[in-house]
Write a structure and sequence with these properties.
57% of the residues lie in helices and 5% in strands. It has 259 residues and is mainly α.
Length: 259
């Protein structure tokens, strides 16, 4: 039976960035637009429909948005205040978007690094500086029929993923390994943005992601505020940059699984 084909870097990115968008969409659906609790007559009707005992119907409540109507049962631990602050979902959407972008850049580089490794001459950027330990050599020699595949899986893939982050400097290092120079200017052009926009936006995104992941988004004695629009903007930047990088790189070689 034929196995499932490995997703391309773009296909994998679309799956990953969808997680970030799901978090935002969920937060939007849970945005409670009711300022007051469920009306008495509605509590009676809903309680009857759900089989809630008469004595407990006064404790029924709800969350209502443009998309959903959620009934909060008397016996539940969740109350309307549970969705009063949806910042945790917004913050995780930012983290998920950054992870999607980082994974895409690493995948995109690995999908195109094979021909660069095989060609004659010096290797570009940090590619030639990657080290091969004795343990790596032995693992490749003992475990792989094709040493190039072993080199890719044991050395290239983990090292490239270590290098990549949302920070534009790290994206530049990774892309330079496949001979892509002046990448930010090219990406600005593909995005139809002013020079320096991509670097500025990625620096802001990386800074916010790091503060969320490593400091709980702390600022001073409290937490930095974040809303739906801001989180959506961060996710949009990650998506736009990944699509622009793919446009700049062009299609990977058909033999992209080889190193």
């Amino acid at each position: 039976m034929t196995g499932k084909a490995k997703p391309t870097p773009v296909e994998a990115f679309e799956l990953n960035i969808a997680d970030a968008q799901w978090l935002l969409d969920t937060a939007g659906a849970l945005t409670n637009q009711r300022s007051r609790r469920m009306r008495a007559e509605m509590r009676e009707k809903v309680g009857e429909a759900l089989g809630i005992p008469q004595r407990d119907r006064h404790s029924l409540d709800c969350i209502e948005s443009l998309e959903i109507f959620v009934v909060i049962k008397p016996t539940g631990s969740v109350r309307r205040d549970h969705v009063k602050d949806l910042s945790p979902l917004y913050r995780q959407a930012v983290v998920a978007a950054c992870a999607a972008l980082e994974s895409y850049v690493a995948d995109a580089v690995l999908a195109r690094v094979g021909p660069v490794v095989r060609r004659k001459g010096e290797l570009p950027g940090r590619l030639g500086d990657l080290t091969l330990s004795v343990a790596d050599w032995k693992s490749i020699n003992d475990g792989y029929e094709y040493t190039r595949r072993g080199l890719r899986e044991r050395v290239l893939a983990p090292r490239v993923r270590e290098i990549v982050s949302t920070a534009p400097s790290q994206i530049g290092l990774a892309l330079n390994m496949i001979d892509v120079n002046d990448w930010a200017r090219k990406v600005d052009g593909a995005r139809k943005k002013a020079k320096g926009t991509t670097v500025k936006e990625l620096e802001e995104l990386a800074k916010r992601r790091n503060r969320i992941a490593h400091q709980g988004d702390r600022r001073g004695y409290g937490r930095a505020r974040i809303n739906q629009d801001e989180a959506q903007r961060y996710v949009a930047v990650a998506k736009d940059v990944a699509e622009a990088i793919e446009s700049v790189l062009g299609n990977p070689p058909a033999e992209s699984q080889r190193a």
